[in-house]
Amino acid sequence: MKANLPPRPEPVPEPNAPTHSRRALAGPGRRRLWAAFVLAALAIGAGVWWSHREPPPPEPPLPATITETEVREAVERARANVVADPRSGAAWGDYGSVLLAHLFDHEAQQCFEEAARLAPNDPRWPYARGQIALKRDPANALVLLTAAADAARTDPKFRTAFTLALAEALLEGGEVDRAADLFDREAATRSDRATYGLGLVAVARGDDATAAQRFAAVRWNPSCRKQAHAQLARLARARGDVTAAKQYEAEANAVEGDPPWPDPYLDHVVGLQVGYRGLQRRTTILERDGQFQAAAELYLEQARHERTSKALTGAGINLGRLGRRDMRHYDEAIALLREAVQLGPSDTNAHFTLSLVAFSRAERLWVADPRSAEAAGGFREAIEEARKATELKPDHARAFLHWGLALKNLGDPKAAIEPLRKGLVIRPEEFELHLGLGQALAACGDRAGAGASFHVAQKLDPNDPRPAQELAKLK
Fold it and tell me: Which residues form the signal peptide (predicted)?
């Protein structure tokens, strides 16, 4: 007998199958969905790219007022480099440097801004902007020069110059303590510029003794010779030392002007200058550095383009300086200077320079042989050119000096007295005039007058042994 089993449950019916097939899943609706997704992703990506993309480079400026062909060509060459590579910070900075060299400050400023944006770690571009701002926006200049000094801190080529430029600007703006810290830091590297700056700091603090010490240490540096002697003269007068003050004033007056301190960036900018202004600035730098041959060659290059008394005089004075080492340079110099006075008969400097070089050459010959006919001829030429210089410029004390000394060396001390005394009327603090007058008076037998002149000369420059030697001869 079979067991009673529960009835088998009926199978649960499956849910209704979807009405669309798999092929339907790949239909137009699905494609539209994917297309919308891709388009949305592209739109988002484009938005991100657009928000982060670099702005297009600006158009490099071109000055409208360029008059010299040589300058225009230099500017256009530098600008073409920017057009060829507009995202190069160096190209923008180099173009700005060319513009700055030719005094197109506004256009240069635009270039340096772009250069700094493209190459933010290069200290030259904030420095260049700071140099421009010193004249137009002193407050912003301090910000820019600070940025430049910070960026150059690990760059030995630019560090000292950029730091000292900042220190000078701070001192000018009355921030004496900050300036002093920077000057002190660079003075440790034996920088004359820093030492001179510390002298100015001492003046600002009222420490005259320290100021005098600092200025005396650097007074023969060509980049501060005039300024240092002028400061020493002022300090000497303040302490009542009139004799020393007059000697310092004479040294200051003997220098036309101090050339700029060496600066690797600004010297480079000067080297970019072309045209007449470029020549003047480059020769100033070369003369400052004692490169007289190179300076003479620059003047001669200009003379080949345009024969002027100024160009020939510039070449002549630099060749004359070389004559101290090689007499043959004197001959080259004198030939050029003779041509200069013919081209510029009213050029006082040409006449004076010819007198100076002719006298220097003749004196070398005269020391070797006091009876040299060639030396006598040189002294006579020096006298004639000095006389012409004083006719054109009656207060030219050094022309009177050469005139008198040449007469004395020719054996006519009596005639020498008058031009030497005329020179002293103009420059009573001039050491060489007192010494020369004393020698002329001694040769004429006026021992008392000679002694008085030598004593004045001795007071004006106690370190020069010649007055004492001349006084010893009178005993």
Answer: none
Buried b (16+ CB within 10 A) or exposed e, 397-429: bbbbbbbbbbbbbbeebebbbebbebbbebbeb
Q: Please tell me the distance from the alpha carbon of residue 245 to that of residue 432, in angstroms, as a whole number.
A: 16
Q: Copy the structure tokens of residue 216.
A: 């005396």
Coil, strand or helix at 88 = coil
Give residue-wise pLDDT tens across range 434-445: 999 999 999 999
CA neighbours closer than 13 Å in the CB half-sphere of residue 251: 23
What's the angle, vertex CA 370, arms to CA 369 and CA 373, rounded to 5?
85
Q: Is residue 425 part of a domain?
A: yes
Tokens of 469: 């030697």
Placement of tokens 């010819």 in the chain: 354
Contact 74, 274 (CB under 8 A): yes
Domain annotation covers residue 392: yes
* CA distance readout (Å), 280 to 245, 302, 440: 32, 10, 40
Decide if 422 is inside a domain.
yes
Place of tokens 């158009």: 59
Looking at the structure of the chain, the number of domains it has is: 1
Q: What is the CATH number of the domain that holds 373?
A: 1.25.40.10
**Tens digit of pLDDT for each residue in 364-412?**
999 999 999 999 999 999 999 999 999 999 999 999 999 999 999 999 9
pLDDT score of 450: 96
Q: Is residue 278 part of a domain?
A: no
Q: What Cα–Cα distance (Å) separates residue 330 from each residue in 357, 379, 384, 402?
A: 7, 14, 18, 17
To the nearest 10 degrees (0 to 180), the angle between helices 176-187 and 192-204 is 150
Give tens-digit pLDDT for 447-474. Answer: 999 999 999 999 888 889 999 999 999 9
pLDDT tens column, 126-153: 999 999 999 889 889 999 999 999 999 9
Measured distance CA(344)–CA(356) in Å, rounded:
17
Exposure string of 196-222, with b = 16+ CB inside 10 Å and e = fewer, is: bbbbbbbbeeeeeeebbebbbebbebe
CB 64 within 8 A of CB 75: no
